[in-house]
Design goal:
It is built from 4 helices and no strands. By secondary structure, it is mostly helical. It has a single domain, classed as Up-down Bundle (Four Helix Bundle (Hemerythrin (Met), subunit A)). Helix 2 runs antiparallel to helix 3. The chain is elongated, with a radius of gyration of 18 Å.
Protein backbone atom coordinates (compact mmCIF):
# COMPACT_ATOMS: atom_id res chain seq x y z
CA UNK A 1 0.00 0.00 0.00
CA UNK A 2 2.81 2.42 0.90
CA UNK A 3 4.48 1.71 -2.45
CA UNK A 4 1.31 2.91 -4.17
CA UNK A 5 0.67 5.91 -1.94
CA UNK A 6 4.16 7.42 -2.20
CA UNK A 7 4.28 8.12 -5.96
CA UNK A 8 0.64 9.23 -6.05
CA UNK A 9 1.08 11.65 -3.15
CA UNK A 10 4.37 12.91 -4.59
CA UNK A 11 2.78 13.44 -7.99
CA UNK A 12 -0.13 15.34 -6.46
CA UNK A 13 2.26 17.54 -4.46
CA UNK A 14 4.37 18.27 -7.54
CA UNK A 15 1.24 19.02 -9.60
CA UNK A 16 -0.01 21.45 -6.94
CA UNK A 17 3.27 23.36 -6.80
CA UNK A 18 3.41 23.42 -10.61
CA UNK A 19 -0.18 24.67 -10.81
CA UNK A 20 0.48 27.42 -8.26
CA UNK A 21 3.65 28.46 -10.10
CA UNK A 22 2.06 28.24 -13.54
CA UNK A 23 -1.01 30.17 -12.46
CA UNK A 24 1.14 32.90 -10.96
CA UNK A 25 3.29 33.21 -14.08
CA UNK A 26 0.29 33.19 -16.42
CA UNK A 27 -1.57 35.89 -14.52
CA UNK A 28 1.56 37.97 -14.07
CA UNK A 29 2.07 37.89 -17.84
CA UNK A 30 -1.59 38.67 -18.53
CA UNK A 31 -1.55 41.63 -16.17
CA UNK A 32 -5.27 41.24 -15.47
CA UNK A 33 -6.00 42.31 -11.88
CA UNK A 34 -9.06 40.04 -11.82
CA UNK A 35 -7.04 37.01 -12.91
CA UNK A 36 -4.26 37.78 -10.45
CA UNK A 37 -6.79 38.11 -7.65
CA UNK A 38 -8.51 34.84 -8.60
CA UNK A 39 -5.24 32.90 -8.63
CA UNK A 40 -3.87 34.46 -5.46
CA UNK A 41 -7.10 33.75 -3.58
CA UNK A 42 -7.26 30.16 -4.90
CA UNK A 43 -3.71 29.17 -3.95
CA UNK A 44 -4.28 29.07 -0.15
CA UNK A 45 -7.28 26.78 -0.75
CA UNK A 46 -4.92 24.50 -2.64
CA UNK A 47 -2.96 24.02 0.58
CA UNK A 48 -5.75 21.66 1.69
CA UNK A 49 -4.54 19.33 -1.07
CA UNK A 50 -0.82 20.17 -1.11
CA UNK A 51 -0.01 19.85 2.60
CA UNK A 52 -1.56 16.38 3.11
CA UNK A 53 0.02 15.21 -0.17
CA UNK A 54 3.46 16.44 0.94
CA UNK A 55 3.02 14.83 4.37
CA UNK A 56 1.92 11.54 2.81
CA UNK A 57 4.80 11.57 0.32
CA UNK A 58 7.33 12.43 3.02
CA UNK A 59 6.01 9.90 5.51
CA UNK A 60 5.74 7.03 3.05
CA UNK A 61 9.12 7.90 1.57
CA UNK A 62 10.70 7.84 5.01
CA UNK A 63 9.14 4.44 5.81
CA UNK A 64 10.17 2.94 2.46
CA UNK A 65 13.74 4.18 2.66
CA UNK A 66 14.61 3.50 6.29
CA UNK A 67 16.55 0.33 5.45
CA UNK A 68 18.11 1.61 2.22
CA UNK A 69 21.35 3.44 1.81
CA UNK A 70 21.62 3.88 -1.93
CA UNK A 71 23.00 7.18 -3.19
CA UNK A 72 19.80 8.40 -4.83
CA UNK A 73 17.72 7.77 -1.71
CA UNK A 74 20.33 9.68 0.29
CA UNK A 75 20.03 12.60 -2.13
CA UNK A 76 16.24 12.58 -1.71
CA UNK A 77 16.64 12.61 2.08
CA UNK A 78 19.03 15.56 1.90
CA UNK A 79 16.70 17.57 -0.37
CA UNK A 80 13.55 17.14 1.72
CA UNK A 81 14.50 19.53 4.56
CA UNK A 82 15.12 22.28 1.99
CA UNK A 83 11.82 21.59 0.24
CA UNK A 84 9.90 21.64 3.52
CA UNK A 85 11.69 24.72 4.88
CA UNK A 86 11.20 26.60 1.61
CA UNK A 87 7.51 25.72 1.62
CA UNK A 88 6.84 26.48 5.29
CA UNK A 89 9.07 29.52 5.72
CA UNK A 90 8.77 31.19 2.30
CA UNK A 91 6.02 29.85 0.05
CA UNK A 92 3.09 29.50 2.47
CA UNK A 93 3.62 32.88 4.17
CA UNK A 94 4.15 34.54 0.78
CA UNK A 95 0.97 32.99 -0.62
CA UNK A 96 -1.07 34.14 2.38
CA UNK A 97 0.40 37.65 2.19
CA UNK A 98 -0.25 37.85 -1.56
CA UNK A 99 -3.81 36.55 -1.18
CA UNK A 100 -4.50 39.26 1.39
CA UNK A 101 -3.02 41.98 -0.80
CA UNK A 102 -4.88 40.68 -3.87
CA UNK A 103 -8.16 40.64 -1.96
CA UNK A 104 -7.64 44.36 -1.31
CA UNK A 105 -6.48 45.01 -4.91
CA UNK A 106 -3.11 46.17 -3.57
CA UNK A 107 -0.63 45.21 -6.30
CA UNK A 108 2.04 47.75 -5.38
CA UNK A 109 5.80 47.34 -5.00
CA UNK A 110 5.56 45.14 -1.88
CA UNK A 111 3.20 42.75 -3.69
CA UNK A 112 5.58 42.60 -6.65
CA UNK A 113 8.63 42.02 -4.42
CA UNK A 114 6.98 39.21 -2.46
CA UNK A 115 5.65 37.65 -5.66
CA UNK A 116 9.17 37.68 -7.12
CA UNK A 117 10.49 35.90 -4.03
CA UNK A 118 7.58 33.47 -4.28
CA UNK A 119 8.38 32.70 -7.93
CA UNK A 120 12.06 32.07 -7.17
CA UNK A 121 11.23 29.85 -4.18
CA UNK A 122 8.54 28.04 -6.18
CA UNK A 123 10.92 27.37 -9.06
CA UNK A 124 13.49 26.02 -6.59
CA UNK A 125 10.92 23.67 -5.05
CA UNK A 126 9.81 22.48 -8.48
CA UNK A 127 13.40 21.64 -9.39
CA UNK A 128 14.06 19.86 -6.08
CA UNK A 129 10.78 17.93 -6.25
CA UNK A 130 11.51 17.02 -9.86
CA UNK A 131 14.93 15.69 -8.89
CA UNK A 132 13.31 13.64 -6.12
CA UNK A 133 10.80 12.21 -8.57
CA UNK A 134 13.58 11.32 -11.01
CA UNK A 135 15.65 9.68 -8.29
CA UNK A 136 12.61 7.79 -7.02
CA UNK A 137 11.89 6.43 -10.50
CA UNK A 138 15.52 5.35 -10.89
CA UNK A 139 15.62 3.73 -7.44
CA UNK A 140 12.38 1.88 -8.14
CA UNK A 141 13.72 0.71 -11.50
CA UNK A 142 11.02 2.52 -13.48
CA UNK A 143 13.60 4.38 -15.53
CA UNK A 144 17.24 3.60 -16.24
CA UNK A 145 20.01 5.52 -14.57
CA UNK A 146 21.61 7.54 -17.34
CA UNK A 147 24.32 9.08 -15.24
CA UNK A 148 26.69 11.03 -17.41
CA UNK A 149 30.10 9.47 -17.56
CA UNK A 150 32.98 11.08 -19.33
CA UNK A 151 34.97 8.80 -21.58
CA UNK A 152 38.17 9.44 -23.35
CA UNK A 153 37.77 9.57 -27.09
CA UNK A 154 40.36 7.30 -28.79
Amino acid sequence: MIKAIHPIAGGIAFACVAAFFGGTVATKLSGSPEAITAVKLAIPWGFFILIPAMAAAGGTGFVQSRDRDDQRIGAKRRRMPFIVANGCLVLIPAALFLANRAAHQDFGPMFQAVQTVELIAGALNLVLLGLNIRDGFISAGRIKDKTLTLRRVP
